[in-house]
Amino acid sequence: MSDTTPPVPNGAAAPQPGQPQGPLLLNLQYTKDLSFEVPGAPEIFTTLREQPRIDLQLDVQARALQDGGNVFEVSLNIRADAQAHGQTAFIAELVYCGIFTVNVEPQMVEPLLLVECPRLLFPFARNILADVTRDGGFPPVLLTPIDFVALWQSRRGGQQGAAAPVADA
Hints:
Blueprint: E1 24-37, H1 43-47, E2 53-64, E3 71-84, E4 87-102, H2 106-135, H3 148-156, E5 164-166
Antiparallel strand pairs: 1-4, 2-3, 2-5, 3-4
Helix pairs in contact: 2-3
């Protein structure tokens, strides 16, 4: 690599000058917010005899980073509430984001941002949630794959603004 070639984050290939960009480019991904609480510690660890019941909520948000531009931040918001014997075992909240450049027709922007972008972010968010729950002293929360098409369609069907519940883990 020459001294004149700028480094590219996350090992991504740099677009070559004069070449058209693809319809979707993931520029950067990052953990925007991560919270893990064990409100009943240390007692919960002495009374916990079975895997806690986990309720999951998932939401996807997208916002333009510049007016009229084609660069967007997509946020994958995940909350896991674990209950055991009527008390809270843990609460985990994760906001995992990506900065995407979108080069598609205007009618394709919404499905690309709310279906394809979270689909790319999901494996990384899944690993972070599994690691933080395991490191917190509990069995890792392993999320099953999410049908982002169904999530997007349910939002369009009148459930705007509400976090979509996900089946128990």
